[in-house]
Task: structure prediction
Amino acid sequence: MSSAQLIDGKSMAQDVKRELASRIKRLESEAGVRPGLAVILVGDDPASEVYVRGKIRDCRDVGIRSEWIRLPDSNPEEDLLRQIDRLNEDPRFHGILVQLPLPRHISAERVIHRIRPEKDVDGFHPINVGKMVIGQEAFLPCTPYGIMEMLRRSGISVAGKHAVVVGRSNIVGKPVSILLQQADATVTLCHSKTRDLAAHTRRADILVVAVGKARVIGPEHVKPGAVVIDVGINRTEEGRLTGDVDFEAVRSIASHITPVPGGVGPMTRAMLLVNTVRAAERTAGIGQG
Ligand SMILES: Nc1nc(=O)c2c([nH]1)NC[C@@H]1CN(c3ccc(C(=O)N[C@@H](CCC(=O)O)C(=O)O)cc3)C=[N+]21
Ligand SMILES: [Mg+2]
Result:
């Protein structure tokens, strides 16, 4: 039986990091600027802790200054907003990331609004979302940006293809559907109320799945030769990570497929570094935009 080509996000992320090294050197030599990222974690959720530790390690690997600001779970929203105000004014930090989810007493919306759009390396601020939608230069959200970069680096053309996105979250499904459309795909956006999901997904040349539920996509959902991008990160009962796609069954049908782990996740992290370096370049007047 034939088997899909793996889209290796881990090795692509290493390539992205290598490419950033020269941009970081240029920032230093031409502008005396070292890019900086501040990461705020509220509370002690173990999964968030692991993610933030990974982001800090990524920064160290490529030479980005980073600061990890830990706040207790009970931290008042007003205090978090003041920390953001301080970082907005601190020229050492070109990017600010507030790890989500936040404790229930804190409004993610107010927090995201408070970050200066020029430092919003997550691409979550409405200014950046709006610019993205109308095709202006903006910070792109890291997962959708990473997906587009994985397609490009795999030599997969998007123009004229039928792309089907499953899931309509503000951080993945909605923005990736817009980026695919801007790359000249014909886009169908499916979600929890979609009737006959398989009838839609079976028409996809490029299928992006961002639902957050293991095995929502099986072989019956996939057209032979399709490109399958799995954004899901789910934990099995045995504690293994698994995506939203039944990987073993789908890999014999698809032409390309992303693994979990080692697919979209590492590229999401890499694009955060790209956005941070871009933010620093902008303040230094280097590069396009
Ligand atoms: N403000 C904010 N921005 C985010 O971008 C953000 C966030 N909050 N909250 C949580 C989600 C989740 N997220 C991941 C990124 C990389 C991996 C990743 O690298 N995953 C590895 C596996 C990691 C592991 O072993 O747990 C992989 O798929 O190979 C996972 C999850 C970013 N998020
Ligand atoms: Mg949904």
In short: The mean pLDDT is 97.
